[in-house]
Amino acid sequence: MQGQGSAFNASRGLPACPDQSIVDSIYEAAFVPEIWPQILDHMAAAVTGHGTALFNPNEKTPRAISSASLAELDTKMVTEGWLQRNTRADRLLTIQHQGFVDEAKYVSPADYQAEPIFTEVLDPLGYGFGASTFITGPSGDKIIFAVEKKKSTGPITAEAIRYLDQLRPHLARATLMSSRLAFERINTAMAALQLSGLPAAMLSASGTVLGTNPLLEALEPQLMIAAHNSIRFQHVAANDILLQALQAFKLHGGLAGRSFPLPHYEECSPAVVHLVAIEGHARDIFSQAAFLMVVTPIDRSKVPSAETIQGLFDLTAAEAKVARELASGSNVANAAQDLSVSQDTVRTHIKAILAKSGMSRQTDFVAAIASIRTITG
């Protein structure tokens, strides 16, 4: 693939139509995402471009796949926050044309000299205008293909646009296939967690619910799918924590694992909510999935015995009793009352429990105990 793409150059001209091998590779990339960089390299080399980027600009934390030759540009876009304020992409999404466009026809010289994305990013790196198109997926996401050219190689030619337009129907079909596969992967993940006895949901970076399993739906009214397909807890503090996590993800593009408690509500047991950010290769460019949310209900009758907890975490007998109280949903005051000790004593034991278990938060420890119940219960 790489060698084939580099065989195209301006002096030899472009073929009348793409070789069947490149078309086959585009469809293969729908199933094997690692092939996309080869496709992008071909697109760039075929039209004397420097590289090609494939990205989803819809979320606040855009995702991208690009040619290795664009590494310097990618780094600048990420480290300086240009992905979140890419006016060039915003402009492209307003162009109603079902094909690749020569961006020079839609951006005036005055715009190029005034807009920061050009003056502070593209121009200093030697880039001129490129050729771009966007494809709307079944979820409403708009996937952009952008071929970047250095100014030194001259403008995009009409011949280059014609060649890219011949690839576009195949790129669109592969994008559609990738989106459907991403949706099926979400459903598969939810089903697997259902079999494990774990209520779960897949969320976008904005908190939109992309998929759930029946166990999660059974937690109503403690947890509900509300307006705009968003998660709503009866516990107000839990809603605040979820909102803070989403905002942190938008600002910083990442999130360490987060756990927080849900108190008992009506017939629903207390529970611990875990938020896990989907990062790296697990986060598909064709899917909006950004978080996995797993809820671990705490059933007092199924919490392991104090002796079991003591052995698992090398606790003292007194610490193990406090640990079981916490795992059963008790707070410091209730644990002190049940064990006939002071609240200060309970707090001292909690510090020791966290130190011995290697966990920094009480909710993480409770979640670990609840997980033991899930496996053995």
From TrEMBL:
In terms of InterPro entries, this protein maps to: Sig_transdc_resp-reg_C-effctor, Tscrpt_reg_LuxR_C, WH-like_DNA-bd_sf
Q: Cite the HTH luxR-type domain residue spans from the record.
A: 312-369
Instruction: Give any Pfam family that matches.
Output: GerE
SUPFAM superfamilies of this UniProt entry?
C-terminal effector domain of the bipartite response regulators (SSF46894)
Q: Which domain of life is it from?
A: Bacteria
The protein, known as: Helix-turn-helix transcriptional regulator
Organism (species)? Rhizobium lemnae
